[in-house]
Structure formats: C-alpha cells, structure tokens
Specification:
The protein has about 400 residues and is an all-alpha fold. Helices cover about 75% and strands about 0% of the residues. The chain has helices spanning about 1-5, 20-45, 45-70, 80-100, 110-135, 145-155, 155-165, 165-190, 200-220, 220-225, 235-255, 260-270, 275-285, 285-310, 320-345, 350-365, 365-370, 375-395. The longest helix has 28 residues, at about 110-135.
Length: about 400
C-alpha cells in the first residue's frame, strides 16, 4: 500500500530528452480546441467573428506554450506533474466543446461563456501549482513567486467580466485578459534573475513542431465538415486534393526548410543565452503559424460549403464573400509572417521569396473575391506550390544563430 501511495518526485530532463507519448496525447486535446475555434468562426463568418476567433486562439495558445516550457524542465509523464496535466486536459477539452457556443451567436448564454472562463482559470491555476511542486522538490528550478501570480490572476478579472457582459465588451475584455497574462508572465520570465532555462532545445522544438503538424492534420477535417454529404461531386473532390496540397506545402515550408536549422541554432547557444530567443521563436513566433493554419482551415470549410450548395447553378462554387476570402487568403499570409519571424530570431535570415509570396496573395485577394470558390482556392494553392518549388531549387537556410 505504501508503494502505491508513494508520489514520484519530478524528474529533470536532459539535453537529449525527446517528446513522450503522453505529451503528444496532451497536445491532441489542445489541437482539438484550436479546431473548435474554426468551427466557432464558421458559424459566424463576419469580421467580428474572425476577431473573436483570434482572441480565442490567443487564450488557448498561451497555456499550451507555458506547459511546453514546464515539460522542458521536468518529465511530463511522471508523478503529480502527469496528474496535473490530466486535469488540464479535462479542462481544455470542456473549453473546446463549449467554444462554438460561448460568444456572440444566437445560442449564447452567460453560463457557456463562464464555462470557458472557468476552464481557463483552472488551467492557469494548475500551471502555477505544478510549477510550485516542481520547484519545491528541485532547488535548481526557480520557485514561481508572487511576481508570476500577479499577471496570471490579473487576467482573470477581465476574463470573468467579459463572460458576464458578452458582446463587443467581451471581445475587448478577453483580449485584455490575454495581454495581461501573456505579456506579464513573459516579461517576468525574461527579466527575472531566477528564470527557467532551456534544458533541451530539441525537446522544445519537438513540442511546438508536433502541435503544428497535428493542427495541419486536424485542418483537413475541415474538408469533411464543409462538404457534408456532397463528397462524391467532382468539384468537392478537387477541393479535397487542393486541401491536401495546401497542408503539404505548409508542412514543407516549416519542417523541411525551417525547423531543423532553427533548432540547431538554438542548441548551439550557451544555456544562459537561450531563453530570450526561445521565447521569441517558440512562444511568440509560433502563434501566427498556428493561427494561419486555423484561418486557412476556416477558409477551406467555407469553400467546401459553397461547393456543396447549389451545385447545378455554381458547379465551381459561388464567389466567396469578403470575410471568407480574407480567411482563405489571410491564413497562408499569417503563416508566412510567422515563419519569417521564426527564422529571423533563430537563424537570422528571412527568405525574400516568402515575403513576395505573401504580398502576392494579399494583392490577389480582390481577384479571389470575384472568382468562383474553387478558383480562389486554386490561386492560393498555386502560390504556395510556386513558393515551395522556388525554395526547393534556390534557397537553403543557414544554421547560424543570431
């Protein structure tokens, strides 16, 4: 009985630590919540809906990256750390289920918005307590003092007020909650003498890269969500092939030409110099990568909906409205911006071709608005494919650190 009740101490990780199966399981729950944000925006494809979706993504992203940093200090699949992460997974899964109904739609109620707010608070409390647990039994890891608690707790006030008030006020207050929590804790981490260090550069790279690839895979679910029962029509099948081509291009741009040199550059830095570039590259620059995938998934779902409705009148789909076109074209643009920032803070080089490609997509947005939905989707696919081909032939990143 004593053996059963004995709690295992947190196990610090080493430089060679890789992502564990439990961490992948943990990341799947967060990826589920991200895709539910796309479901929320698809229910209200308006400029306000896109902005509200962005706030949701920010509120989901910050807990994920903070837990990725915690797992870079100790094993995530051992003892109370694992038990605490299971609690976090449960809270995040509940939040993901409720997200499509928690903001601004006809079915909105205070209880649903409060459910999301309380789930977020539970996740942040778990993060703080797990940090205390890890630090108490391992003196080499800094204890999260009250300076960390101030921005975490400070973000709860606008979060709860926004849930109660709803509407545009909720949008502003929840954005403020993210800024207080994110910027506050990031500043404390950067300027504190006793701060986390990057114990394993490869592990931090793995965690963020795996979430990205899971999000890419989940984005393909948008094909089925948008097509419904029209999956055998040829325009829908063409759109499905284009969706796979888009996901492959985004995968290639990150994993083939960015992830490895960035990770190598971070690993070569001395321990005391790793924290700032790691926060900039993974906690901050990876957010537009994930957000770009989610907005592209939304655009794909809306394209498939156009193809599935009124096929006799519009075989290639009626033209998208401005909001849907902005999601379809803006998603890859945001992704390329994130990739550029990621490469800039790690290898010190942003390829000009991707800046040109992002500019071309923005310039073609009015053209995409006038084209049939399938044609607009084809334009985005062609630009991404051209960028991949160009980089494959002309550009190879250097692995030198800034």
């Amino acid at each position: 009985m004593a053996h059963i009740l004995r709690i295992r101490r947190p196990v610090p990780i080493g430089e060679a630590q890789r992502t564990t199966p439990f961490e992948i399981f943990f990341d799947l729950v967060f990826a589920f919540a991200f895709i539910r944000v796309a479901t929320f925006m698809a229910g209200s494809p308006t400029p306000l809906g896109l902005a509200q979706g962005l706030v949701f993504l920010m509120l989901l992203w910050w807990p994920f990256t903070t837990f990725a940093w915690l797992a870079n200090q100790v094993r995530a699949d051992v003892g109370l750390v694992r038990a605490g992460l299971v609690v976090v997974m449960a809270a995040m899964f509940v939040a993901g289920l409720v997200i499509p109904y928690a903001w601004g739609h006809e079915t909105w109620t205070v209880s649903e918005a409060l459910t999301v707010a309380v789930a977020y608070i539970v996740i942040r409390i778990a993060f703080y307590l797990l940090n205390w647990h890890v630090a108490v039994v391992n003196p080499r890891i800094p204890t999260p003092g009250f300076r960390y608690a101030i921005p975490i707790v400070g973000g709860w006030i606008p979060l709860l007020l926004g849930a109660v008030l709803g509407g545009a006020t909720q949008t502003l207050l929840w954005a403020a909650a993210f800024l207080i929590d994110c910027l506050g804790t990031a500043c404390v981490s950067l300027f504190s003498k006793d701060r986390f260090r990057v114990r394993s550069a490869s592990h931090l790279c793995d965690r963020h890269g795996l979430l990205l690839i899971i999000a890419l895979g989940e984005s393909l679910i948008a094909v089925g969500a948008g097509a419904g029962s029209a999956v055998t029509r040829w325009p829908v099948l063409i759109a499905a092939v284009l969706a796979v081509a888009n996901a492959t291009a985004l995968w290639w741009l990150y994993f083939e030409n960015a992830a490895a040199p960035a990770g190598q550059a971070l690993a070569r830095l001395p321990d005391q110099d790793r924290v700032r570039p790691a926060i900039n590259a993974y906690s901050l620059a990876h957010f537009p990568l994930i957000a770009g995938i989610i907005y592209l998934a939304l655009g794909i779902e809306l394209v498939l909906e156009h193809l599935a409705h009124h096929p006799s009148q519009h075989p290639a789909g009626a033209p998208l409205d401005w909001t849907s076109t902005a999601a379809l074209f803006g998603g890859p643009v945001v992704y390329l911006i994130g990739r550029g920032l990621f490469l800039h803070v790690t290898v010190g080089h942003t390829p000009r071709a991707q800046i040109v490609a992002a500019g071309i997509m923005l310039a073609l947005l009015p053209v995409g608005r006038s084209l049939p939905a399938l044609g607009a989707f084809g334009v985005i696919t062609a630009v991404l494919a051209a960028l991949v081909c160009y980089e494959r032939i002309m550009w190879q990143p250097t692995a030198g650190a800034r």
